[in-house]
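Q&A FORM
Asked by: J.P.
Topic: structure of DUF1758 domain-containing protein

PROVIDED:
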Amino acid sequence: MEELPNLKSSLSEEQEFCETHFKSSYKINYQGRFVVKLPIYRDINQLGDTKWLAISRLLVMENKFKLDSEFEKEYKDFMNEYEEAGHMLHNKNLNSSKQEYFLPHLSVQKKYSITTKLRVVIDRSCKPPNSNSLNSVLRVGQVLQIDICTILVRFRVNKIAFTSDIKQIYRQILIDPDDQNLQKIVWRNSYDSVTKEYRFSIVTYGTSSAPFLATRCLHQIGLGSQNINPEISNIIQNSFYMEDLTAGAKSNKEAFALIQNLSETLNARGFHLREWRSISQDVVNNLAQNLGEESNLEIHPKNCSETLGLIWDSSTDCFVFKINFNFEITKR
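REPLIED BY: S.T.
REPLY: Here is the structure written out as tokens.
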């Protein structure tokens, strides 16, 4: 018989740094949410002045707004929602003595997304001349979650399958106030107003350390649940790929019990599961009855949903492929 490779090999120096840094610096605030520090391993004084670059990129973005009013509305709505949620804080103290770093921002659009069509992310490639970018002083960290193929194989084992995802996982993790000055942006809502400085108070899309910080917080919840509920701990550590959950149970009763316990465990740390789907209509009906609108239950009209890059038809429990032909069929 062949031997399986040792998946839990020793950590590299970079991975060891990130793990030690996380365990020694993370905190749980009064709301039960994670507060983490950026895994900085190089002198941040090597970061250059990027405010002028951030302003010039903002002006370019505003020119795009003039050409597409719908894009402008979606972009501004996203930024306003960020500010209202407290994820983007107005930096009133402009004479801060702390090292600061400004990040240009841009949009990523997902036309077929059920929840967020447009998302504002930072430009990870931003680098002033003869200087370092923010990502160049951050450690990336180890990959904590198992590979997609293994998760999908496990997904086929149980009789009752279900899927879900964590709502805005990055935005549920707070950045320590000492590090927020390294996540600054410039923004204004109208062309005739002055630009203002803001700082992100949460883990941001585009930073090299964001995936590690998000999955490490999720992993920590699993570790903390080992003695309380080993089954829930196992699901959290082995059935998530980033924020996407693919799991199952032997029966409808067991499936709903798992879903309830999983939801309660993750909610305690600000991670809210949503978009539940299942091959069992009884599980779906039970979810709608007991979780209701709080779960943001979304059922695709054709029972199909994207699952780890594939399309899962929950009515037949099959994976299907969607192919778009973006060209004209000619005689040739």
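FOLLOW-UP: The radius of gyration is 22 Å.
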